[in-house]
Amino acid sequence: MDRKLILNKIYFFTFLIILVLFHNQKTLSAGSNWVDYEQGKVRLIAEKIKPGNSEYYLGLHFDMIPGWKIFWRSPGEAGYPLEFKDLKSKNIFLRDIEWPYPERFNFSGIYTYGYSNEVVLPIKLEIIDQNLDANVSLEINFLTCSNVCIPKQVVLTLPLNKENLEIKNHTENIKLLNNYINKIPNKVESSLLNKKIYFIPKSDKSVLKIKIDSKQGFNKPDIFLEAGIELNLDKPKFNYINNNQQLEIELPIKNIGNLNIEDLLNQPTVVTFINFGKAVEYNLNVEIIGNEHSSSKKFWVIILFSIIGGFVLNFMPCVLPILSLKVISLLDKDLLKYKFIRLSFLSNILGVISAFLILALLIITFRFFGINLGWGFHFQEPIFTFIILLIILIFSLSLFDLIHIRLPYWISSSLSKNTHNEDSNNLKLSFCNGLFATVLATPCTAPIIGTTITFALQNSSLKVLLIFAAMGLGMSLPLIIFAIFPNLITLIPKPGKWTIYLKKFLGFLLMLTALWLFIVLINQIDLSILLLILGLISLGFLILTKGESLHIRMKNIFFKIIILIIVSIIIFPIVVFFEKGNRETTASLSYLNTSDLNKYLSNGKIVFVDVTAEWCITCKVNKYLVLETNEVKKFFKNEDVIYIEIDWTKRDTKILDFINSFDRSGIPLNIVYGKIAPKGIALPEILTKESIYRVIQIAKGSKIVKE
Fold first, then answer.
1. 3-state class of 679 per DSSP?
2. Against a cut of 0.85, is the pTM above it?
C-alpha cells in the first residue's frame, strides 16, 4: 500500500514537471527575457492576434519606474522618438511601429508627448516561411526622461520556433497587445470630413482652431497636431457647444516668431483626436482666417464682456458731452435731497437700459422680416442724423447762453435756474438724457463691443435682449454708484464762476459733436440740399433770440450775424472738400472687385481694405493714430501695399454682406489680403501699428518678427 502510494506521488510529480516544462517552452516562444536599463525594463512579446493568417504582432513592452517616460513619434518641444534597427533577424519581415496615442507632459511650461509607467509599442511581424524557424533580433535606441534625459540603447532577441508559431493561448500577452492596439488611432479619409484647421493671428498669441462634432458627446477629449515643420503648441483649450455635441479647440502657438506661416499652410497637418478612450487620425489643411469673433463663447463670458464694453462707452468722445448735461443738473445740489438725487440717477439708468432694449427690439424685429442690420445702422439715415444734429446744436447754443427756446417744461427746467425743483419733469429729463447718450454711443465701438454684438446677432432673441441689457447695465455703472451713494456728489465743489466756465466748455464739446454730425450729413446728402438746410438753420437761429425789448433783440441779431459769417467761412470749404472727396471715393473705391483683388494678389501685392464711415468715431481714431501716420504710410509704400477704402456712411447691403462674411456686425473692419491669405485676415477693431505689421508679414508668408 505504501509502495503504491509512493509510485502515485512519483507519477504525479513527473507529470507536473513535464507540464511546467511544456508551459515554459510555450512562454519563451511568446516573450523574451526582460532587459533592465536602470530607469525601467523592456522586452519583446509576439502573438498572432488574428488566427488563420501569417501576420503576427511584435510588441516592445516597456515597464518604467514611476516618474520616467519615453517619447511618442512626435515628441513635442523636447526629446526624440524611439527607433529600432534590425540585427540579422531571420525569416521575418518587420513593418513600422504603430504608435498608440500618447499622454501630454508639462515640465515648467514645456509640453512633450509620450508614455509613462507601462506601454506596448506594436509592430506588425510577418513570418516569411511558416515551415522554418524564425528569430527576432533588434537594437532599440530611445530617450528616457524625468528631471533629466538619458539616451539608451538596448538589444532584444526573441526566438520563434516553427513548432510554436501557431501558439495563440497566451491570454495575458494577447490582452496586453490588444489593449495598446486598440489605442492606435483609426485613420479616417480626409475627403469624408468637411473640416479645416484655422490659423488665427490674435493680438496676444496666434492660435490654431478646429471644431469637432460628436453625437455621443465628449469624454476626456484630447488632441495632438503634427505638422511638417517645428510647431510648438501650448495646452489646448476646449469649449463645449451645441449641447455638448460640438467641441471647439484652440491650440496657442508658442514659437510663432520662428515659424514660416507659408510652410504651415502649404502641407497637410496630421490630427490625432481622442474621445472616450478611442483615437482617430486624419490629415487636414490649415487655412488662415484672421481674428475670429466666435459665436461659441460661453454665454456668461459674453454677458461679462457686454457689461465691460458698456462701461467703456462712457469714455468715448461721442458720449462724454451728453453725460455733461447730467453734471449741469446737479450744480445746485445743495438744494436737493438725497432721495431726489437717487431717483434722478435711477431715471437716467432706466433711460440708458431702455435705449439698449429698444435697439435690441428693433434688431429682432428687422431680423424677423429678413432684414439684416449692422451696429450703428440708424446713423446711416440722413433724417435721423439731422434730428440728432439739431438737438445737439440747440443744447450747445443754450449752454453758451446764445438762444432761449421755449421748450417743454420738463426739458427747459434742467437748463434754467430751477434745477433744484424736485418734480417729475426733472426725472423725465434724466430718463431722456440716458436715452440720448445711448443713441450717440452706438457709433463708438469699444474694443469688445464688436464681439458681444456679433454674438448677439447670431443667437436667439432672448440672448439679444439679455446682451443689450447687460451693455446698458455696464454703461450705467457710474450712475449706479451715485444712485447707491448719493452723498458722493458732495465731492463736487459748490457753484461759482467755475460753473460758468464749465458750461462753456461742455457747450464747446457739444458743438464739436454737432460738427461731427454735420460732416456725416455732408457724406449722406447732396451739397445743394445741405446748403438749403444750413440756411434754414441759420434763419431759425436768427429768429430764436433772447430778451424782451426790440433793442436787445436787434443787438443779439447783429451779434449772431457776425457769428454766422465766421462759421460759414469755416464750414463752407469743409463742405466743398468733403463733397469732392466723397465723389472721388465713391467713383473708385465703392466696392472690392474680386477680379481686381485676384489681379493684385497674383502680382504679389498686399491689399489692405479699410471699411469705414463718417459716423464711426473709432474708425476716425484708427485713421488718426495709426493708418494716416507717416510711419504706417512709409511701411505701406515699402511693402507695396494697395490701400482700399470702402465707405459705409450710407446704407449699403452689399457692404454689410461683406462685413458679415468676416463674422462682424459693424465697423471698423480692416482686412489684409496676401498670397497665403486670399480670403483675408481681419484685424482687431482697435488698430495698432504692431498688429498691422504682424498681419501683413503673415499675409506675405514671411516669418513673424514679433508676436
1. strand
2. no
| Burial annotation 666-705 (CB, 10 A radius, 16+ → b, else e) | bbbbbbbbbebbeebbbbbbbbeeebbbbbbbbbbbeebe
Q: Is the pLDDT of residue 654 over 70?
A: yes
DSSP state of 649: S
The per-residue pLDDT for 300 is 77
Q: List, for residues 81-102, the tens digit of each pLDDT value.
A: 999 998 888 988 888 899 999 9
For residues 354 and 49, the model is more confident at: 354
> What single-letter DSSP state applies at residue 63?
E
Domain ranges (residues) in the chain: 1-29, 31-184, 190-288, 299-524, 590-700
What are the E-state strand segments in 471-543? none
Of 264, 280, 261, 190, residue with least CA distance to 227: 264
Pick the CATH number of 31-184 from 3.60.20.10, 2.60.40.1250, 3.20.20.140, 2.30.290.10: 2.60.40.1250
Would you state the pLDDT for residue 707? Answer: 44
Q: Which three cell numbers, joined as nine digits, stand for 315?
A: 469714455
Which neighbouring-strand residues pair with 248?
Answer: 211, 239
Sheet holding 186-187, edge to edge: 186-187, 278-284, 269-275, 222-226
Pairing outcome for strands 186-187 and 110-116: unpaired
How does residue 443 score in pLDDT terms, banded at 50, 70 and 90? Answer: low
